Amino acid sequence: VQLQASGGGLVQPGGSLRLSCSASGFPLEDYHVAWFRRAPGKEREGVSCLSGSDDSAYYADFVGGRFTISRDNAKNTVFLQMNSLKPDDTAVYYCGSAGYWGQGTQVTVSS
């Protein structure tokens, strides 16, 4: 069983990135999938969650409509589309599901 987050990188303020959370060994479609992030010197915080029962999506208040979480069952992958990125979004982003966590992917928003 493995979860892998990818898609991070360096982007200018106002730019976009799409993070991917790919699973092997279990079907993501049957489970809640959550994205968290940890910025330097800060506590880990929840970003978004996609329900495994009805695909309801939940977002932290700071997202403010800029991010979209979605699922591609054929690829066994959950995506986090992040638009209008701000320097405050700089962090390592992690995905978790069914009690498993993947290695994070670094997102850096800087000019």
SSE diagram, text form:
Layout: E1 2-6, E2 9-11, E3 17-24, E4 33-38, E5 45-50, E6 57-59, E7 67-72, E8 77-82, E9 91-97, E10 100-101, E11 105-109
Parallel strand pairs: 2-11
Antiparallel strand pairs: 1-3, 3-8, 4-5, 4-9, 5-6, 7-8, 9-10, 9-11
Written as H for each helix and E for each strand, in order along the chain, the element string is EEEEEEEEEEE
Largest sheet entry: 7 strands, mixed
| CA radius of gyration | 13 Å
Which stretches are low in confidence, meaning pLDDT under 50 for 5 or more residues running? none
- Structural class of the secondary structure composition? mainly beta
Mean of pLDDT: 95
Q: Helix coverage percent of residues?
A: under 10%
E-strand count: 11
Q: How far is the first residue's CA from the last residue's CA?
A: 38 Å
How many helix segments?
0
What shape does the CA trace take? globular
> Beta-sheet strand percentage?
over 45%
Question: Mind explaining what this structure looks like?
Answer:
The protein has 111 residues and is mainly β. It has no helices and eleven strands. The radius of gyration is 13 Å and the shape is globular. The N and C termini lie far apart (38 Å).
